Amino acid sequence: AGAGAGSPRPRLRRVSRGGVAGAPAAVLEDYGDVAEGFLVLHAVTGEAAWLEAAGSLLAIVLEHFADVGVDGSWTYYDTPDDGTDAALVVVRRPQDPADNAYPSGWSAACGALLSYAGLTGSQRHRAAAEGGLAVAARTGGRVPRAFGWALAVAEALADGPREVAVTGPDADGRRRALHAVALAGTAPGMVISVGEPDADGIPLLEHRPSVRGRPTAYVCRRFVCQAPVTTPEALAEQVGATLPPPAPEPEKAPEAGRDAGPALSPERTGQTSSGAAAASE
């Protein structure tokens, strides 16, 4: 990242070499994909810093890459309003909502905005994602291969997305077990926060107390939650996770002082005891 002119927020750069950021400014896909990556890191680590970093990048997206029409529709441009070549602006500011082998900047931004809205309850970010998905709603049904990621984000929007808050002491193995199930969930676009109840800087953990002193998971949509659960099995049902089969029980060793099995007779073993030898004499 480098400092961008005219903005107090750090701005991303498109390329780097030898650990040194290059001059070309980042484009929309860079901001959308990096923000989504930061939100995944937040889900895995529970650290509020990653959520804050994603929010900073998405603020730049809304300020410099997005435009809201009079009809409420959203347009996302590939280049920022303060970094687009003047000659291109005269013709047409670059924009392309179609996905290819990887998400377009438009779709990547919508996905990150929706995930951030799920983690923070921000209506502004949710509206920006919904408005940006309108183009996929109009044409995605006719050419779905051109809007793969946009349609995946739309599926997440239709499902909620589901928001999972896992609360409990950091060192508690039961919280780690719940967290692992949440990370294995298959609900489309699901977002996750994990940490102590009411942890600073993590809105999804606010007012999510532990139940009977046990680590607890809440599955919510738009911050309205189902009944909390405290077992991996119950959480798996709510997030579409498959639990691994239980490990087979180890075979028990014979107890000391007990026969391990029937003893073999001397004839079966081919050996003769000294007592039997004396009797034959």
What does this structure look like?
The chain has helices at residues 28-45, 48-65, 86-91, 105-120, 123-132, 134-139, 148-159, 173-183, 232-239, 266-269, 274-280; strands at 2-3, 10-11, 16-17, 20-21, 66-68, 74-76, 162-167, 191-195, 216-221, 224-225. The protein starts with a strand and ends with a helix. The protein is elongated. Strand 7, helix 8 and strand 8 form a beta-alpha-beta unit. It is of the alpha+beta class.
Summarize the model shown.
The protein has 11 helices and 10 strands. With 281 residues, it is an alpha+beta fold.
Could you name the key traits of this structure?
single chain, 281 residues, alpha+beta, four-stranded mixed β-sheet, two-stranded antiparallel ribbon, 11 helices, 10 strands, elongated, disordered N terminus, disordered C terminus
Q: Estimate the mean pLDDT confidence.
A: 88
Indicate the low-confidence ranges by residue numbers: 2-7, 272-281
Total of DSSP H or I helical runs spanning 4+ residues: 11
Tally of DSSP β-strands: 10
Estimated radius of gyration: 29 Å
